[in-house]
Amino acid sequence: MSELDMCHVQTMEEILTTGKSQFMSDHYFIKAKKAYELCLTFLWIEEKFNIISENYLEWEKEIFDIYNFILENTNDKQESDQIIKTQGKKSIVMLNRRLANILGSIRMYRDQVSHDLSTISKMLELENLEKDFKEETNNQYDKSIGYQIMEFIRNYMQHQGMIIEKLTAIVPFFNRNQSTEFLFFAEVDYKRIKEIKGFKNKIKLINEIDTNLEWINVVELVRQYFNGIIELHSCYRKITNTIFDEAIENIRHIIGLHYNYNVINQVAFLAKKCDNTYKDFLFQKCFIDDVVNYRQADIAPSTNKYYLNRKSYISSNRNLANSIRLDIRYNMV
């Protein structure tokens, strides 16, 4: 059997020094390729979730910045009101943009994770990965009014574009940065939302919101929605733990067998040339390190950032002694 009829592995050091490669059995080559492809799939799923997290934190930073701007500029100067309203209208537009980013990235994540789990199931001849993920998706939808409304709003925003029309801020006269409540509200016209076709059928927990409310606060709804996605991603990690651990062990073991378990940052897997079904691939340890670190890290962001540790509310109908209430409106029609 010629060398072209056999699989090989070769490191950069071998290329630069001896020019030699090591033979690898077909069995190990196929097993390593499958394990590495699984690891890359798991890595990209984590990166997709990271996109959601970053979009969510950008949203929280935006409302953190605008509320702080309002706190700092609310005073008895004549120009104060106009300064706040001018900045507030700009913030309404930016918050709509941030919201669209969150909703779009969540849809992308769910669709692509379902697709990836289906692909993995076929590769490993499993049955329940995609099914379990979809069941948890439905579970998160059923138990959260925020999840339901934000799903509904996402479909609406695809056509409407902007949904947040009003900002409300309650500004205490004293101790403005010591509250445990987040007294800032990014609001949508609830009466208008309820009139959209399909609302009653889609929103199963409608009784959790006062039917007389005119405006609802998407700050609280987005937080509920994001928490649901955190639980969904936790479920995804749980149902793939065994597969992930085996893939990591397989790729490390196979490389270790050929290189005496030394640390190898890159190694080329060279397919035999007599069979077109075998394809070369390049193993890069940095990607394995990334996915391992991601899966070991906490899913939820730290509550020490921005105002994540402050309680938010669906309605801005709140009374606070020794305070002033500011409303900034951006009419959509």
Class from helix and strand fractions: alpha+beta
Cα separation of the termini: 77 Å
Query: Per DSSP, what share of the residues sits in E-state strands of 2 or more residues?
Result: 5-15%
The arrangement of helices and strands along the chain is EHEHHHHEEHHEHEEHE
**Helical coverage, percent range:** 55-70%
Q: What does this protein structure show overall?
A:
This protein is α+β, with helices and mostly antiparallel strands and 333 residues long. The chain has one domain (3-329). The chain contains nine helices and eight strands. It has helices at residues 12-16, 26-73, 80-124, 129-143, 145-160, 190-194, 199-202, 218-258, 285-296; strands at 7-11, 22-24, 166-172, 184-189, 215-217, 266-270, 281-284, 323-329. α2 packs antiparallel against α8 (218-258), α3 (80-124) runs antiparallel to α4 and α4 packs antiparallel against α8. The termini are far apart.
